Amino acid sequence: MYTLSVRRHIMIAHSLPRADFGPAQNLHGATYVVDAEFMTDRLNACNVVIDIGLADELLKDVLEPLNYQNLDALPEFEGQLTTTEFLAHYIHIRLSEALTRSGVFAGRLRIVLHESHQAKASYEGVVQ
After folding, report:
1. How far apart are CA 120 and CA 112, in angstroms?
2. Which helix (H) or strand (E) holds 2?
3. Is the pLDDT confidence value at 128 over 80?
4. β 2-14/69-70 pair status
5. Any residues with CB less than 8 A from the CB of 106 and at least 6 apart, and which?
């Protein structure tokens, strides 16, 4: 299995309004390091998993609407608990859509959100 990864970061604010989340119930900020890992059994005609510059640009485009935003105020997240796991899945969906539209990659995609040097969450699935 071949793998290529690109990394970016986003800064967000949000709250997790349930007693389960302790002090994170209140509005707080987070800086996520976001890794997009592209995996495939075969290299493409250029002998790459995906062009690094293109992968980076697509990830940047997906993350831009979230960067420096209060997720509680975005309509697409109304009524959602925007946990790290939830956001990993959300980013996976958006990046998968962009990859499918462009037709430049078919394989597995893993999105990893590093919440800190001690904690991370991810979501992995197939891109058609």
Report:
1. 7
2. strand 2-14
3. no
4. parallel
5. 40, 127, 128
Q: What are the C-alpha distances in Å from 38 to residues 58, 71, 74, 83, 117?
A: 12, 26, 28, 23, 22
Q: Which two tokens stand for residue 24?
A: 């994170």
> What gap in Å lies between CA 72 and CA 79, rounded to an integer?
9
The structural domains of the chain, ordered by start, are 2-127 (3.30.479.10)
Q: What is the pTM (predicted TM-score) of this model? A: 0.97
Answer for the pair 43, 49: CB distance below 8 angstroms, yes or no: yes
Q: What residues pair up with 110 in beta bridges, in sequence order?
A: 37, 124
pLDDT of residue 29: 96
Instruction: Retrieve residue 66's tokens.
Output: 């979230």
Q: Tell me if residue 79 falls in helix, strand or coil.
A: coil
Burial class (CB in 10 A: 0-12, 13-18, 19+), 102: exposed
How far is Cα 24 from Cα 5, in angstroms, rounded to an integer?
A: 30
Encoding tokens for residue 117? Answer: 């040097």
Q: Are strands 2-14 and 28-40 parallel, antiparallel or unpaired?
A: antiparallel
- Whether residue 15 is predicted with pLDDT greater than 90 in this model: the reply is yes
